[in-house]
Amino acid sequence: MNEFTRYLVVGGLNTAVCYVIYLIALQFTSYNVAFTIDYIFGIFFSYFLQLRFVFKERGSLKKAATFPTIYIIQYLIGLAALNAAVSFNIPEELALLFAILVPIPIMYLLSRFVLKPAQ
After folding, report:
1. HSE-up of 94 (CA within 13 Å, CB side)?
2. Torsion of CA 85, 91, 93, 95, to 10 degrees
3. How far apart are CA 12 and CA 101, in angstroms?
4. Domain carrying residue 78
5. Domains in the chain: how many in total?
6. What is the pLDDT of residues 22-40, one digit of tens each?
7. Strand (E) or helix (H) holding 118
8. What would the pLDDT profile of 64-76 be if each residue is shown by its tens digit?
9. What is the mean pLDDT of each run of 10 residues along the chain (119 residues)?
10. CA atoms within 13 A on the CB side of 113
11. Contact call for residues 107 and 74 (beta carbons, < 8 A)
12. Spatial contact of 98 and 82, defined as CB atoms under 8 Å apart
């Protein structure tokens, strides 16, 4: 399995787990807060999965500190996509899926840059 395919598989697993967290949080709070809760969990979960299974690299303090910063970009893109989806009357329960799909290509490139040193 090539690296991008592993990225998609790990992303799918991370998405599934985070979607469940989003749906649970949605029972107690607004969709924006639920998105934020699931997003923070997803950063940590994704870091470990990508590091070990996608890029097959060892962790470091620098990587651990830098990795969450790239997710600020994804968060802002995802939050904009989430709100756009809701404004187009996509149900809140499904709007998150749209927010997840939009930033995939840029996040792969940013994750690779941070977690896998240039060869």
Report:
1. 6
2. -10
3. 10
4. 3-115
5. 1
6. 999 999 999 899 988 998 9
7. none
8. 999 998 888 888 9
9. 92 91 94 90 93 91 90 87 94 86 87 84
10. 11
11. yes
12. yes
